[in-house]
Amino acid sequence: MVDEKSNKKTRVGFVVSTKMDKSAIVQTERLVPHKLYGKFMRQHNKCMVHDPENSCSVGDRVLIEECRPLSKNKRWRIMEVIEKAV
Length: 86
Prior knowledge:
- The protein is mainly beta.
- It has a single domain, classed as CATH 2.40.50.140.
- 0% of the residues lie in helices and 51% in strands.
- A 5-stranded mixed β-barrel has the order 1-2-3-5-4.
- The radius of gyration is 15 Å and the shape is globular.
- The termini are far apart.
- The mean pLDDT is 94.
């Protein structure tokens, strides 16, 4: 068998909300340089993710992976909880 590499995007972010059943809101952050001055600025993105076991809680650091559209807003799936919130 040949191991094929997945083309799916992965991101690491923090769980912001878990008020829905089997869903969570994850905020990802990336550093982008300013076009003129070159200073790095933080840009945030919130996305709705699928959490079938309701395994994460607010403040957890999670790894999410792109997937097929699961609902109107859900296009990401939680792969693993990297770090639990204190």
